[in-house]
Amino acid sequence: MDNSPIKVLFIDDSEDDYILTRYWFGEFQVANCELEWVNNYEAARNAIARYQHDIYLVDYRLGLDSGLELLREAIANGCCSPIILLTGQGDWEIDIEAMKAGAADYLEKSQLTAPLLERSIRYAIERKQTQQKIREQAALLDVATDAIFVCDLDEKILFWNKAAQRLYSWKKEEAINKKTRVLWHEKHVSQVEKALNIMMKDGSWEGELHQKTKSGKEIIVESRWTLVHEFGNKAQSILIVNTDITEKKQLEAQFLRAQRLESIGTLASGIAHDLNNILAPILMTAQLLEPEVDDQRSRQLLQILIINAKRGATLVKQVLSFTRGIEGDRTILQLKHLIVEIQQIIKETFPKSIQVSTQIPQNLWTVCGDATQLHQVLMNLCVNARDAMPNGGTLKILAENLLIDENYAKMRIDAKVGHHIVITVSDSGTGIQKELLDRIFEPFFTTKELGKATGLGLSTVLGIIKSHGGFIDVVSVQGKGSQFKVYLPAQEAAETIEEKEQGLPSGQGELILVVDDEAAIRDVTKISLENHNYKAITASDGIEAIALYAEHQDKISLVLTDMLMPSMDGITTIRTLRKMNPNVKIIAVSGLTSQDKVNTAYDMGIKAFLSKPYTASQLLQTISTVKNN
Fold it and tell me: Burial of 210 by CB count in 10 Å (0-12 exposed, 13-18 middle, 19+ buried)?
């Protein structure tokens, strides 16, 4: 105990009792007390209100007044110091009332002795100090960010801090005396049972638990259990500290997904390279055959082959753009062509239970954008709509012109004043839960089953639309369907129409060295050149190309070399050829090379770059341009 004296106020209307009590205080063996005395209710009330004493000894009878009433009034007014009630006669009813009112102890004067009074005072002070420490510790536990609670071996909650209230959404008064299985749902019950067995054996347990809170939110907690002896009136209890690691686990999962996607990107790049090498000879061979075919049916089939080979090449570029984050070419587009094309794809590939309709005005404005990326946006929204209608329904695609004024722009933070085109994709499907609407554009977030989606679709859509200077609005009612509105800035310029191939430029007997590790590409390129009055020799790699160039240097007018080859790559081949002849004209070819390598090749002196797969027209036009410059 503290060495400073305990200040005691004795409240009794009998001076004789005060004198006797003062005598007893002089007999105390341990407690060092200072005794003051007041002899009436009013004086006692005023003295207690000043909070200058450590403990009060109150007689049950204070003349016409009651010490029990004084006790009740003092505690009601905020008195925290212990109050011991004294009475001249033993009365169990008064004893019970005193304890209910908050008395620290109840002593009968006829049985009172100095040791008994000293012990009662000391115990009352020690209990007060202990309770204060407990309150301070409880306050510290409430400040903690971890959920801390105590339950008995029957899972009944005995203690519950504020962090537990925040994590599980149960208030303290709701949680106390309730079983944990009522407060939250354990995803893996068998794991909890094993944890309890380990804790009873070893005294502690640590691990991760998957739980569902009062609000239905699924959480992952890092849980630490400790067996506690004698908590309250329980012989054994469990102290549990739970740290919410849900967000940490989500970030870890996102990181692993990102790594997996990076690996997929690397794999896709390799596949794209092979696909380009396959598509290039198909495209050029079809174009070589076109003039040789007379019947209309065969010409139609060749056109289908050429169109789809070009579409395949565009698809490969789209894959590379996505995996590398490359921004595609922007041109003036008329979106009605994209919508009509997507409508055709939907009709051919979507279930027949889904009815598709489009509404496009004749005077729809144009946009400046990447056709491949905007195709991806609309296709993604339509696929999501399809997945939201497993039992069929209606899919509508609408396009309209909209002039956004200042008032509209003030109401929508992403909107800018000016002419816009609005494309609306709506479905009659399952809809999206209200609480999930704010998260649907987050990377890796998906409402679909595990393994059904990456959660990248809508985040990619949003990224593309923002890069085009637009924005997206979503309205969804669960059970009735969803509506996505895509806003894109409109352009005043006319639509960029793909030029039809004109007559192909021919050569004048010049010799061209074709370098490529794919035999099919070498052969079809050689035939295309020879069909248009060029001569051609071929090499399967850089080493063979250097040898051929050394032998025919004075005859070779131009070198057409692939950038990715075994033995000696394109960059090394170009560098060697330039050393042999600084004025050599070189066209670099690749379907995969990064922009950095293309820039390096230009720095080394190449005259042009041709992307695989290329048409005969593109090949001949490029050669003609380089030859005449």
Answer: middle
Tell me how far apart the alpha carbons of residues 88 and 71 are, in angstroms, rounded to a whole number.
Answer: 17
Integer Cα distance of 342 and 354 in angstroms? 14
Q: Looking at 378-452, which runs of residues are DSSP E strands?
A: 393-404, 418-427
Q: Residue 557: is its pLDDT beyond 90? A: yes
Residues linked to residue 354 through DSSP beta bridges, in sequence order? 393
At residue 493, the pLDDT reads 52
Q: How far apart are the C-alpha atoms of 58 and 72, rounded to whole Å?
A: 12
User: Rounded CA gap, 458 and 474, in Å?
Assistant: 11
533 Cβ contact list (under 8 Å, min separation 6): 506, 507, 508, 509
For residue range 203-225, list pLDDT tens digits in order: 899 999 999 998 888 899 999 99
- Tokens for 619, please give them: 């090949």
Strand pairing of 55-59 and 83-87?
parallel
Smallest CA-to-CA distance from 491 within 625, 368, 400 is with 368
pLDDT at 9 over 80: yes
The strand pair at 105-108 and 83-87 is best described as parallel
Over the stretch 290-308, which tens digit does the pLDDT of each residue have? 778 878 777 777 877 787 7
586 SS3 class = strand
Give residue-wise pLDDT tens across range 13-42.
889 889 998 999 988 877 788 899 999 999
pTM for the whole structure: 0.42
Residues 6+ apart with CB under 8 A from 223: 195, 205, 206, 207, 208, 209, 240, 241, 242, 243
Is the alpha carbon torsion for 224, 142, 229, 154 positive or negative?
Answer: negative
CA distance 536 to 530: 7
Distance between CA atoms of 172 and 467, rounded to whole angstroms? 49
Q: Are 610 and 600 in contact (CB under 8 A)?
A: no
Instruction: List b or e across 460-483, with b for residues whose CB sees 16 or more CB atoms inside 10 angstroms.
Output: bbbbbbeebbbbbeeebeeeebbb
Alpha helices (runs of H) in 12-149, residue ranges in sequence order = 15-27, 41-49, 67-76, 92-101, 114-143
20 DSSP assignment: H
Count Cα atoms within 13 angstroms, Cβ side, for 495: 14
3-state secondary structure 211-244: EECCCCCEEEEEEEEEEEEEECCEEEEEEEEEEE
For all residues of the chain together, what is the average pLDDT? 83
- Which pLDDT band, with edges at 50, 70 and 90, does 490 fall under? very high
- Tokens standing for 195? 């944890």
Which residues are within 8 A (CB) of 132 and not within 5 positions of it... i.e. 6 or more apart?
Answer: none
Where b means 16+ CB within 10 Å and e means fewer, 341-361 reads ebbeebeeebeeebebeeebe
Query: Do 562 and 570 form a contact (C-beta atoms < 8 A)?
Result: yes
Decide: helix, strand or coil at residue 156.
strand
Residue scoring higher pLDDT (462 or 558): 558
